[in-house]
UniProtKB/TrEMBL annotation:
Coiled coil: none annotated. This is Cytochrome P450. It holds the Pfam family p450. Belongs to the cytochrome P450 family. It comes from Actinomadura napierensis. Transmembrane segments: none annotated. Keywords: Heme, Iron, Metal-binding, Monooxygenase, Oxidoreductase. InterPro entries: Cyt_P450, Cyt_P450_B, Cyt_P450_CS, Cyt_P450_sf. PANTHER family: CYTOCHROME P450 YJIB-RELATED, P450, PUTATIVE (EUROFUNG)-RELATED.
Amino acid sequence: MALTTEEPARFVLDPATLDVHGDNERLRAAGALVPVEIEGVRAWAAARYSALEAVLAHPDLSRDVRHWSAEGRRSLCPAGTLAQVVLARTMLNAEGDDHRRLRGPLSPLFSARRIAALRPRVEAVTADFVDRLAELPPGPADLRREFAYPLPCDVISDIMGIPRDRRPVLHEHGHVLATTRGGADELTGARTARDAVIREVVDERRRNPAGDLISELVALEGRELTAGEVFDTVQEVFVAGHATTVNLITNAVRLLLSRPDQLALVRSGARPWSAAVEEALRLEPPLRHFPMRYATRDVEIGGVTVRRGEAVLACFAAAGRDPDRYGERAARFDLAPDAPPHLSFGHGPHFCLGAPLGRLVGEVALAALFEAFPGIALAAAEDELRPVPSVLAVSTTSLPVLLGGRAR
């Protein structure tokens, strides 16, 4: 993260940084809201817990890009990572009645009760991937590629009704996007190919409805949703339904293997696996920064005035390690039962719809993995693991492990 010399001083957020948390520490130290530049876009960064909490729920900070200043919109690179989020025409960026209309059909499907009922299915899918791990040849295995990525992909594909013969293509292109490997043309090609498959499945469900989520959304076409909104919603659910959970599982496994004392707590039953999920979400949240909210009028937060039309960036990874919130344990993986809540699933009207599913998949995945492979260990030093080169994500591009023998 570089610091420019212009006035006001701006931190330039680097997607290729090797020191994500060091950068975040410097952001927190700079103030409640800090002027930053991200992919050439100027914004305010909410890096402290109190500032982020205020930003996420503030009624005068909107996700609707129409409230962004014309100057800000001109600075957005259409092929950049930010543009894929900022310009999405989904409930992610909708407000008010539009947000309620787009989110409404999905809310019952992702309720805590409905997701809890999916536990047997999630356990069955997880068991299948554990079996696949056990069949790998001896030597280091990339747990991200072989387990953390395909598991949540299959779970959300089951819920949505994506046919099995279409999944390998989605997995192939999705893995490229999840690790942001390759140049801009390769990433654009992967995104286009992924969306083409999703569009084909939506078209198939128009012709032959089934008892799945895509069919339920297609049934609303022409009444509550337009055809474009159906596709955009399906695409968003697929991406959001697995991309962050990939990082959650990868990060949680790495943290547990790096802290044998904390792993022993969950293995002994002294602490539940859900505690490991929550602590991983706080300390290494799947999202590093997430764009963007725009001031609909002048707003003051933490003594800083955000002018109408200016953009504010949510900094989840920085807020999760804020000592003002978490004290001396802020930068430590600690499964103590008195941990304060985190903001990694958001706060306010845009609280993550998929939080119950992400928590369930993470909990089941960790329990099954560590029960099946009691001798599992990292196969690389921490400083050898490469961060995902993205301003949005917190994870590593791979997670080499030695599985050891499978428990009988």
